[in-house]
Amino acid sequence: MSKNSLADLSLKMGRRTFLKLATIGASFGATSAFASSDSVRAATQEEIKNPFPGSKRVKTICSICSAGCGIVAEVHNGVWVRQDVAQDHPISEGSHCCKGIDQIDLVKSKQRIKHPMKKENGKWLRISWDQAIKEISEKMLKIRKENGPDASMFLGSAKFSLQEAFYFRKFAALWGTNNIDHVARI
Predict the structure, then answer these.
(1) Per the domain annotation, does 159 fall within a domain?
(2) What is the reported pTM?
């Protein structure tokens, strides 16, 4: 290769490719620095056996759907740190579905919304439960008044227990519509 063709090749590298390569290089450099220092050490046998000393195991159920499979949650200082299947649970019989296995990640997710939020002027603001219920109910009543009860659709949840599904159906009937379905069917 001549000098000019090498220069032509370097000019053809796009900004995105350059940034990707720079990121890979920086990542390699950072991980190499940790690996060659004493900041990372091998875990002791006791740490491998019990990484959260003093934690307690709590039997609970998965809340992904209404089946109620068993989970044994390990709680350390009030934080859910690990989970295992409940081997003696009568419904799940020591197994989980793929969503149940990920239950801990859903609970600990930084993207999980924990409070009612309202978008105003392009920004999400935290509002109270009372305000959220008031505003939603006012909008629903306005829709029913202007367009009739069939303007609303009630969509059930796989998390509903049998009793919750019964009350949800009764609410739709009280609302005045038969527009009700289940999320699993859609």
Answers:
(1) yes
(2) 0.53
Give the model confidence (pLDDT) of 90-125 as tens digits. Answer: 888 888 888 888 878 877 788 888 899 999 999 999
Residue 27 lies in a domain: yes
- The span from the CA of 109 to the CA of 46, in Å, is 29
- Element at 179 (helix H, strand E): none
In a domain, 40, yes or no: no
Short-list 60, 71, 68, 65, CA closest to 101 = 71
In Å, what is the CA distance from 26 to each residue of 34, 89, 125, 134? 13, 48, 37, 51
Query: At a CB cut-off of 8 Å and minimum separation 6, what does 13 contact?
Result: none
Task: Let me know if residue 47 belongs to a domain.
Answer: no
